[in-house]
Amino acid sequence: EQIKNVDAVCEILDARIPVSSRNPDVDELTAGKPRMVVLNRVDQADPEGTKRWAEHFRAKGYAVLESDAKSGVGTAKFAGAVRELLADKLRAYAEKGMTGRVVRVMILGIPNVGKSTFINKVAGRKTAKTEDRPGVTRSKQWVPIDRNLELLDTPGILWPKFDDQMVGLRLALIGSIKDEILNIDELSLELISYLKENYAGTLAARYEVEETVERPVELLEAIAQKRGCVQRGNEIDYSKAAALVIDDFRSGRLGRITLELPEAE
Ligand code: G4P
Q: In the structure, which protein residues have their CB atom closer than 6 angstroms to any atom of ligand 1?
């Protein structure tokens, strides 16, 4: 509904899962609009992976901005990047003498990609959350950036169906899906198996475990033992160890890790 009212659409993506954190409907809905993707959380993603994703999106005609919204790295380049993206349009306005026209950009992003943090940094303000709770408006929110630029903030909505099981899994790993509805044990095993294959040595370094074991569950067991995750009766507390590994991943303690790369798509 609002797309007709904006000059460009900007998707905030998680640099660790740039495809899984995109709403699959957006491409179709925004066809014909100048588009930008923000690869956010670059501080948590593998720099090599981010470089490849930036190239991937640029090749598809998107403007790309790399950002760490938490510390504000990259966010200052946003306004300039929008003007560059809309250069032809702005030139046409200038030729018609419409120099004061405000450029409007719709901001999209699924939960937990850092959309609010990004908008706050770009707008230089403290709080901005389009929340899904009573009393907080879910309608459109225009956020002024400067004299000629306004953002349309939208609620972070996660699409209800994941056709690809891996998409759901990656979204769960970055914390976009509530942990209460997840199987943390399974999630950690998937993460362990991915790390073992793509970031060999990471688990060994963090938990002082051998990565030579065959099955991910054996690695989880070793981590549990190293970290004293035991229940009464000296039984291994797999869930505690699983939560620990996931928390270490989410908080960056396992290093900078990208969970999907362009070629694999
Ligand atoms: P959302 O609107 O997309 O749902 O996400 P939001 O901005 O609320 O950010 C969710 C969490 O992610 C926040 O942490 C925020 O600080 C953090 N975050 C946002 N962008 C980045 C980034 O580029 N890098 C890193 N490392 N973190 C980022 P929080 O723990 O919920 O809050 P706080 O303790 O940081 O205030």
A: 40-41, 43-44, 68-70, 109, 111-117, 156
pLDDT digits (tens, 9 = 90+) for 85-119: 999 999 998 899 887 889 999 999 998 999 999 99
C-alpha span between 252 and 228 (Å, rounded): 21
Give pLDDT tens digits for 238-261.
Answer: 999 999 999 999 999 999 999 999
CA 94–ligand 1 middle distance (angstroms): 38
Ligand 1, atom 20, lies closest to the CA of 114
What are the structure tokens assigned to 198, written together?
């793509």
- 3-state secondary structure at position 131: coil
Using DSSP's 3-state secondary structure scheme, residue 178 falls into: coil
Which 3 state secondary structure label does DSSP give 33? coil
The partner residues of 236 in beta bridges, in order of sequence, read 230
Tell if the pTM clears 0.70, that is, is over it: yes
Q: C-alpha angle with apex 112: 175 to 15, nearest 5 degrees?
A: 90
